[in-house]
Write a structure and sequence with these properties.
disordered C terminus, Pnp Oxidase, Chain A, 7 strands, alpha+beta, about 250 residues
Length: about 250
């Protein structure tokens, strides 16, 4: 007989499944056609989750990167600790993914026109897959300098890279290694309730604006998106204002 803890976990698991079904759903409604806007999102959210694999398990590191676009090529430049499972894994397998995450929030169906519907989670995310290569000492030095110069003014900041003692820099460089990731495949999901009615979106934004800083940031993203809304076919709209099986439109 299942005890109260088992019952609670089962109930929680069921609830999470109900929420996440929509969260993980890939739909043309949530895709941004303008590639420059996707790049702008990456530039605005440069603290990535770098994911690799050592042949047995995934390895994950969270690091800041510089996002560069050279002609049609996108490069991510950063550094990781040399004595780490990630560095060891990358020596075996140079296939990696960089996950860019933006604002996100729970969206309660209680604000929908018809609240007896499934709640969801809105979010913005980019997955950049590609090949990574380790940089030599000079390349690592330049990677750290370039990253520091973005956040510390070379001319006025007392913590500017150029104000550091050279021996101090060399000492710390021994513990890290720079990398350059060439992006070969770029996927994204900007899920901002585009598959809902205008009234639902208005109610969602209103609710988010009364919440946390993260909620407000997401509401602002939704407001920007509404400047160029996607027209929703009425025949696909349910009583709750949610699109039913929108993928059928694209078969």
């Amino acid at each position: 007989m299942a005890g109260p803890v088992t019952f609670l976990l089962s109930s929680l698991s069921l609830s999470l499944k109900i929420i996440i079904i929509d969260y993980m759903y890939r739909s043309p409604f949530f895709e941004e056609e303008d590639s420059e806007k996707v790049l702008a999102f990456m530039l605005a959210n440069p603290f990535i989750t770098l994911i690799g694999n050592d042949g047995e398990f995934p390895v994950v590191t969270q690091v800041p990167v510089i996002v560069k676009k050279i002609n049609d090529k996108i490069l991510l430049v950063g550094h990781i600790m040399r004595k780490s499972d990630h560095f060891s894994a990358l020596s075996i397998n140079d296939s990696v993914m960089a996950l860019f995450s933006g604002s996100h929030a729970y969206i309660s169906a209680s604000v929908y026109e018809k609240p007896s519907s499934v709640s969801t989670w809105n979010y913005l995310s980019v997955q950049a897959k590609g090949r990574i290569k380790m940089l030599d000492e000079a390349g690592t030095y330049q990677a750290v300098k370039d990253l520091t110069d973005i956040y510390e003014s070379p001319d006025s900041s007392p913590a500017a890279f150029g104000r550091m003692d050279n021996d101090y820099i060399k000492k710390h460089l021994k513990a890290i290694v720079g990398f350059e990731l060439e992006v070969l495949k770029l996927d994204h999901t900007f899920k901002l309730s585009q598959n809902h009615s205008a009234q639902n979106r208005k109610s969602i934004i209103s609710k988010l604006l009364s919440g946390s800083d993260m909620d407000i940031a997401l509401a602002q993203e939704m407001e920007k998106q509404q400047n160029d809304p996607i027209e929703i076919p009425k025949k696909l709209t349910t009583d709750s204002g949610v699109i039913m099986n929108p993928e059928q439109q694209y078969k």
